[in-house]
Amino acid sequence: MSNNISHKGLLIILSGPSGAGKGVIYNSVIERMPNIKKSISVTTRAPRPHEIDGIHYHFINIGKYREMIANNEFLETASVYKNFYGTPKAPVFEMLENGDDVMFEIDVLGTKQIKEKYPESIAIFIMTPSFKVLEQRLRGRNTETEDSIKTRLGNAKHELKEYKLYDYFVINDDIDEAIDNVMSIIKAEKLRIEKNEDLINKMLEEMR
Fold first, then answer.
1. Does the first or last residue of the chain, that is N or C, have fewer Cβ atoms within 10 Å of its Cβ?
2. What digits encode the pLDDT tens for the residues 198-207?
3. What percentage of the chain reaches a pLDDT higher than 70?
4. Backbone torsion region of residue 94, taken as left when φ is above 0, otherwise alpha when ψ lies between -120 and 50, otherwise beta
5. CB burial string 122-137: b at 16+ within 10 A, e below
6. Phi-psi category of 16—alpha, beta or left, where left has phi over 0 and alpha has psi -120 to 50?
7. What is the distance between the alpha carbons of residues 137 and 21, in angstroms, rounded to a whole number?
8. Residue-range domain boundaries for the chain
9. In sequence order, what DSSP letters do the residues of 159-188 get, joined into one string?
10. Residue 5 pLDDT
11. pLDDT tens across 98-118, in order?
12. CA–CA separation, 176 vs 26, rounded Å?
């Protein structure tokens, strides 16, 4: 910025049920807003054929992961199908201090953990216009069994009940409009008074 005032970055969380389109929104926002960075998670699972250590994940053994938990090094951590996944705090906080925004695509449990450790984070919940539409989208994939659809809809109801964790609620009826709405939220958050106090105080100093 031309005013030479450094601004701390935003930590942005995107959540929503499977089928709500949060993945498309996440990738589209990052593509259109290059100042937003992805965090690289740590996992104990083995890399898949196309995955590169340090780009897709940091792959470590269970012993090292447990050591990181004991040292309180994670912003959030979860166990998924007998493997662990987590986000180390240090690189995220470093990016934020450097003025970069960092965005997460994460579930309700991860949102809870991040909000506890970093209350100033901005959490956005992505949802379809109704559960009927969500079901239609899940069925439209033609990849889900009937049991899987029921499970995902049940999970969606559980996630939506946690709405008070979130700061914003974006309906994905039209994907382009939903992407624009998320980008507008991020832009508006960067214009908040508390995010610009250093610049305001510099202006006031110049008037003396």
1. C
2. 889 999 999 8
3. 97
4. alpha
5. bbbbbbbeeeebbbeb
6. left
7. 9
8. 11-39+101-206
9. HHTTGGG-SEEEE-SSHHHHHHHHHHHHHH
10. 57
11. 999 999 999 999 999 999 999
12. 12
CB 67 within 8 A of CB 111: no
Dihedral of alpha carbons 124, 197, 191, 36, sign: negative
DSSP characters over 1-32: -TT----PPPEEEEE--TTS-HHHHHHHHHHH
**Cβ atoms of residues 13 and 122 within 8 Å:** yes
Q: How far apart are CA 105 and CA 85, in angstroms?
A: 13
Q: What CATH number is given for 11-39+101-206 in this structure?
A: 3.40.50.300
DSSP 61-110: -HHHHHHHHHTT-EEEEEEETTEEEEEEHHHHHHHHHTT-EEEEE--HHH
Q: What is the pLDDT of residue 132?
A: 95
The predicted pLDDT at position 45 comes to 95
- Other beta carbons less than 10 A from residue 161's beta carbon: 9
Instruction: Pick the more confident residue, 88 or 39.
Output: 88
- Residue that wins the pLDDT comparison between 198 and 26: 26
Residue 160 has pLDDT above 90, yes or no: yes
